[in-house]
Amino acid sequence: MTLEGLGPLRRTEFEGGVILSPAGLEHLARVGNLAVPTPFEVSLRRYESAPIVTMRVEVIDKVPRCTELHFVMEEGGSEIRQRDMRDAESLEDWIGASVAMIAAEYIDTEEQGVSTLEFKVGGPVDRQKMKTIQRSRRGSRRAVTRSELEKVAEVYNAQADHGIEAVMRSFNMSRSTAARRIKAARDLGLIEQRNK
Questions:
Q1: 5 Cβ contact partners less than 8 Å away, ≥ 6 residues apart
Q2: pLDDT, tens digit, for every residue of 79-96?
């Protein structure tokens, strides 16, 4: 991963990591009321001897998206293990927190009829910025096709119990995503309500 050719870079340090982002205004993309540098890279280490995780985030269609993810073992550090991959399940949180740390906020100045940018970089993660990012990412989920829901229903219906776990394993998805897919399949009549 590299940000070469994007001009001067801004370095934002936080506990356990660093974010590199282009400093020029031409590299800002709008996400709700935020101006987000794009692309940017986050490097973090979860604990002292942990592998370094580097993530590249780009704003695509007004949504911050992880486009690359790398795990690197440092000399003398721990190898990349399954638990490090489980840590990657925090990807949504990593994206949200890193964007919130480096994004500028559009502030409307009513008396002049223009928007200005306000940078508050390097402070604690702003909860309002996190909500803006979560809304943009939530609204960006692609539509699930009937064919996909039929496959979910097939896996779920094949289980006498613990169907949600089977769906999670079969499609490598979180419990919340599996529950949404099961509900959608049930709404289409592909899964019948089970007696408890």
A1: none
A2: 888 877 776 667 777 888
